[in-house]
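Entry for the shared binder. Reason: the reviewer on the internal report wants the predicted structure included alongside the sequence.
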Amino acid sequence: MSILTGRAPRRSLRAALLVIPTVAVVLFSAGPASANVPLTQVSTDPYTDAQAQHRTEVEPDTFSAGTTIVSAFQVGRVSGGGASNIGWATSTNSGATWTRGFLPGITTNAGGVYAQASDAAVAFDARHNVWLISSLAIRSSSVDVLTSRSTNGGLTWSNPVSTATGRLDKNWIVCDNTSTSPFFGTCYTQYDISGSGDAIRLKASTDGGLTWGPARTSSSNPTGLGGQPVVLPNGTVIVPYLALNEQIRSFRSVDGGATWRATVLVSSISHHTVAGGLREETLPSAEVDSAGTVYVVWSDCRFRSGCPRNDIVMARSTSETTWAAPTRVPIDATTSTVDHFVPGIGVDKSRAGSSARIGLTYYFYPNSSCTASTCQLSAGYISSTNGGTSWSTSTQLAGPMNLAWIPNTSQGRMFGDYISTSVLPGGNAYPVLPVATAPTGSTFNLSMNVPTGGLAVTGGTARSAGEPAATPAPAGTTRSLTVH
């Protein structure tokens, strides 16, 4: 995720921040070996609590504003859910060097009262000059949504603000950063109530995340997972999400989150279950360009005869309530054995339409016909300079990794239910990637890494493919999941 901003702060709460002594400004040495690009390690798990699988870091989100990039992720994954804490890594110089640390006041590992933390998501509020990390905080009686704040460029963080309480799941956060928008400076947090059939709720803040308004929902009363709100330049908020009937749907607010309108269909989903017992879900990844076109990607097998493996597909909004048919991102031929999943899209918010610059990161198996002991997990990247009409040649960023190198959960081996990519204005793309090497005894070696210097956003001649003549979409199945 990224925005272009150069606005001066309206106010500062620097004195209220808690400085963590262990934070250090570093450029780590080269990280784990990768296929085509050098990686820089930006964080590693320091904890030793007995509940977690160490040293593990999973499920990163990123956001960029100007030359600053902030990432947040789980640190010390617990098999039953959540992690020892939430980590963060920040660059204030377009990815040249990175500062890293761990959020205070959430888990007992860092002065909080919760047992675990999960599902980190990052936003920036340009009006109030504050960075925000939303997370789930887990204890036996509740799973709450918290918001941690930084007013010094993502370099130190306050104890968290309580945003919503209950039995909640899959939070996401975004802010309106267009100075001409009537809702400039309004931030939005989305989550679902896992104890109520994954009913989706949203709250809004107009004071930089210090306080949050009442919980509201769409007039359609949607249920689902992974709602990822994006804000258009005119202030409209669009929320694509994974519905429980195997569809990607969206809904919107045109009044700063006071009301949310009925849901509309983005697309049905055709999905091949990934081999090896890997934890993997069809959560959407969404971004918006400078003209307000929304781009949504997910893993889908509709372009493969018989649905034997997945491609990454992308749908673009044609208005605030309509979507074009999904197109296939041409990473590999439809006859290949490659299975693609867990995409993270980044869009340059200084460009739009036929000049829109897109960076897309994803994970894949080179051969989908594998088992838990033979599957080889890798990370890849592809980009477009014309809004996804055509694409560059893909490149392998990391891997192959054995599944035994990543932590286990109640839903399978896990590197993350989502990943993220940020594209700097006119510049390079920066995904933050969980990359593993072989464990040392019973201790893992799974840490957060960035491609050193970022990844060029280039075009190419590989054309996106339109909807196939016969889509092998299975009938929708109702389900209820807990993904934290």
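Summary line for the report: The longest strand covers residues 53-65.
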